[in-house]
Amino acid sequence: MAKPNTLIFVDLASDDPAKAGQFYAEVFGWQDDARPLGVFHRMVPGGFFANPDGRDSQIGNLHLGIFDAANARPHPSPEGVEPRHLAGDGRKARIWILVSEDDTVERILSTAEKLGATVLWKDHYWKEFNGFNHAFRDPWGNEIILWGKAGPEPRIPDGFTRE
């Protein structure tokens, strides 16, 4: 294989894609592109990946999909197939979000919590990837990890846990 396969999209399950689209639009400021409303919502963050010098590249930021667990589209059968419910307890895929320089973890977590999310942890530094992280579980059970770059000579604030 001369070229690697490319990740183009990640979907989250919901039993109410329209409400989930509104949730992510309010929490992260993303555009909620219903395609069609209540069936599949494409969350569009806008912007572009940065070049090493900090300027925008030509590569647009990735999108996030929200699909209806009762009928996950696309599928060859218009009626979809089982299972038709959200996953229960246990580990699931996690989504990592790099917090913008013009937003704050505090605003994101408080907005998410106000809209029904559960904060899982706050104020942790992970040395292996040199970043600060915080996490919440959305009202549909999906885990979202907020990430902040710590920089070349990180200063770990008092009260942060470390690993």
Overall mean confidence score, pLDDT: 93
Secondary-structure element series: EHEEEEEEHEEEE
- DSSP summary, beta strand count: 11
The number of helical segments is 2
Biggest sheet descriptor: 5 strands, mixed
Tell me roughly what share of residues is in helical segments.
10-25%
Oligomer: single chain
Share of residues in strands: 35-45%
Q: What structural category characterises the helix and strand content?
A: mainly beta
Shape assignment: globular
Question: How are the SSEs ordered, and which strands pair?
Answer:
Layout: E1 9-14, H1 17-28, E2 31-34, E3 40-44, E4 48-50, E5 56-60, E6 63-68, E7 94-98, H2 105-114, E8 118-126, E9 131-137, E10 143-149, E11 161-162
Parallel strand pairs: 1-6, 7-10, 8-11
Antiparallel strand pairs: 2-3, 3-6, 4-5, 8-9, 9-10
Description:
With 163 residues, the chain is mainly β. The chain has helices spanning 17-28, 105-114; strands at 9-14, 31-34, 40-44, 48-50, 56-60, 63-68, 94-98, 118-126, 131-137, 143-149, 161-162. It has a five-stranded mixed beta sheet with strand order 7-10-9-8-11, covered by helices on one side. A hairpin with a 5-residue loop joins β2 and β3 (40-44). The longest helix is centred in the N-terminal third of the chain and has 12 residues, at 17-28. The radius of gyration is 17 Å and the shape is globular. The protein starts with 8 loop residues before the first strand and ends with a strand. The mean pLDDT is 93.
